[in-house]
Here is the input.
Amino acid sequence: MTAPAQRSRPKIVLLGMMTKMPVAGVVWQNLHYLLGFERLGYEAYYVETHARTPSMLMSHEDDDSSALAAEFIASIMRRFGLADRWAFRALHDDGKCFGMSELQLERLYGSAELLINLHGGTQPLPELSAGGRLVYLETDPVQLQLELRHGVRETVDFLEPHCAFFTFAENWGKPDCGLPRQDRFRFTPTRQPVVIDLWPDRSPQPADLFTTIGNWRQEWRDVTFEGERYTWSKHHEFLKYLDLPRLTGQAFELALSSCEPSERKALIEKGWNVRDGLEVSRSVDRYRDYIGGSRGEFTVAKDQNVRLRTGWFSDRSATYLASGRPVLTQETGFSNVLPCGKGLFGFESLEAAVEAMATINADYAGHARAARELAREHFGHEAVLRPMLDELGVGPAKAARSRRPATTFPAEMVLEPLSRRPTTLPRPTVEAAQRNPVEAHEDPPALGPNSASIVIVTHNGLVFTRLCLESLLANTADCDFEAIVVDNGSNDGTPAYLAKLAERDARVRVLLNGRNTGFAPACNQGLGLAGGEHLVLLNNDTMVPPGWLTGLVRHLRNPGVGLVGPVTNRIGNEAEVATDYRTWGEFLDFARRRAVDHPGEWLEVRAPAMFCLAMRRQTYLRLGPLDERYEVGLLEDDDYADRAREAGYQLRCVEDVIVHHFGEASFGRLVPGGEYARILKANQQRYAEKWGRSWEPYGRRPNPRYDREAQHLRDAVKTAVPAGATVLVISRGDEGLLKLNGRRALHFPQAPDGGWAGHHPADSEEAIGHLETLRDGGAEYLVVPPTYNWWLSHYAGLREHLEAHYRAVVSDERAGAIYHLERGGAG
Here is the structure.
């Protein structure tokens, strides 16, 4: 019997320059990327093609520098199991290729998923950028950002061939960061990954010395910005903290290179131990042992990162944390993205450093444990590299044969419903869902540690179910999972679709109920079948972006957290945030921005809604199944949240994960006939009987942007519309938009009773007809708030009608548009 052909793994090429700086810190930095990608299932390759002379490896001018560089790389690759996956092109000399052959290298470039230009240290040669997969990864910010600000042509030309851009300046773009913003290239923040198990946990072991490793004096990369000089050499910052040994009584040691004897003497006189940094850094093992044998790290940062608050964080400090050693380092703005105060401390003054040192020493064992956990959660290779791959649209390596891009649906597919109660979608959206292929995925999930079971209950609504499941299967690339779909007696083709999907995708399991058993019973059926470590309830009227599941699950590593949910566009509680997307592509962009702007942030909430809810299996076993007394549905999520809170759990809404929610895809059909109101009232009574208190409506989060826009609108109306005039306001039922300084304001579109219609027009013809009917009834002005400017592009016929027949008395980006509905007013 012939053995099945082994499936090749996707390839990732790391373009580095270890031979230019052949010291352990640089080697480890490269290894963490290479081995991190390997751990995630990729085939990692290391290539140097940077044209820099490996002078640090040379003892004499006539040494064969190329051979020395090749042997240096080969020894490292052999040590870590990558013996046949490296190349060195001697572009500084005769161009000879070492390691892989030129033909192998050419084929590698053509077949690689990604080529990552680490440090931006490699020229983007045509053979590297030809495939459109060359990624710029900046580890030392400031100089490049200033060059972009000044429009340096060479810098722009260097960046142009890259397809994506990452930076260690994690605070760039935040209000307190001094780096100038730029719009030409979109940089995504990232940080150094660490393969944690390569760094033994030293937290239980006592030690005496706080240490660090680095260069004392480096004078050659100072920059000037807006008349101020920003230095590169760290000695400028160290000099501010020379009295730390005397003030703390703590022992410190600096392993320094580029430090003159006179400077060493001055440091020793101030109570610092000083040793040769290069000696510590000649071997990856010696370097690791030195860090692990320290009590912790005390270090400073470069003036450029300190004063400009770039958010940069040292890759070396990350390895101290991984070793279970607390880190006390100079603040660069990293505290905006990393948790400080337990295992990690940032300081901005000598007094703050003294205080932090006392805090660490008062509970050293606790801070050592916290350091290791912080490293695992924030610097572990999965935590860093998975989001990077998601950002780049690169899916899971093990599913390479059936991997699909994040844009499973057309980017232009509209997510805004045409109407609600019932919720209906535009015909092109329905057609896109129907024609999206059901692709094969033959690999069954391995439901071990970090795996998840995602339970989805369906009752008709096939188009929503397809949108949900197709986005879920395409964008859940960050861990093993199974999707358990429980159908409650659908009669619209849903069972046939689910059966076909389960047949072709081994990750999908289907349970068909012959009738509508209700939401809670169906959820309990699915949860009873679940085999994952984490359990997720997901509504079938949702769509998920890349990285959503990892973003939720990482919060469940904290044993005190019981239930976790994302933010969303529509839910009616604190999880609802202001959004500015209308299409699938815009939603994916919004999700990426949300992850960048709110990394690791969360909000404690009263009741995470079950449109998307994650928990550990252990939490479910403790709390038990959902209470099935709540009939078809409604309030079972409030009940479950109360049970979790009584058990002592914290309930979180995760700020850096958004899940799109169409809303009321099933229950919306029950509203017109009054069935929804009956169910809600009955379940409120059941809740009160169980808990001895009345159910209370949810709170909402404030929306400063929306409030500002509403005020701009009111100011514009006050100026442009006469008092007492009747005004139509395009809205989604927001009564606050009708408060217009005494003008008679009405919703548009509106129901016969004058309230909001509950839906948007189906097309321009319907919008125009409705507008003219209301105009004939006395409406004098139409107001388009800035939030609804999209109407003027989506309903192109309406815009043309307004421009042809009416005059725009206001057209402003902040205030929106106001049309005077007087015939003959246009032009």
Residues 215 and 257 are 5 Å apart (CA to CA).
